[in-house]
Amino acid sequence: MCVIPYADAGKACRDGDDCQGSCRYTADGQPPADAPVTGTCQVSNDPCGCFATVEDGKLQAALCVD
């Protein structure tokens, strides 16, 4: 698989529609339940690692991919 960087990597986002890839939660710790959150746009199309996405300003479940 070729890993391709995204042009909007690191941009603040509230939903995957804001990014070329997904909007990922990168802050430390767990926010209060149902608290609005922001994330950053995914760096590349590399699917590996552990991450949680942000959709409509809400934190989604975490996922780990090998």
Describe this structure in words.
With 66 residues, the protein is mainly β. It has one domain. The protein has no helices and five strands. The protein has strands at residues 12-13, 23-24, 39-41, 49-55, 58-65. The strands form two sheets. A three-stranded antiparallel β-sheet has the order 1-3-2, with no helix packed on it. A hairpin with a 2-residue loop joins strand 4 (49-55) and strand 5 (58-65). The protein is globular and about 35 Å long. The two termini are 13 Å apart. The model has no long low-confidence stretch (mean pLDDT 95).
Entry summary:
By secondary structure, the protein is mainly β.
Any key phrases for this structure?
3-stranded antiparallel sheet, about 70 residues, two-stranded antiparallel ribbon, mainly beta
> Major sheet: order of its strands?
1-3-2
Low-confidence stretches: none
Rg (CA only): 12 Å
Residue-averaged pLDDT, rounded?
95
* Helix-strand string: EEEEE
Shape descriptor: globular
Estimate the helix proportion, in percent: under 10%
> How many strands in all?
5
Count of spatially separate domains: 1
DSSP strand (E) fraction?
25-35%
Query: What is the overall number of helices?
Result: 0
Distance between the termini: 13 Å
Q: How can the largest sheet be summarized?
A: 3 strands, antiparallel
Secondary structural class: mainly beta
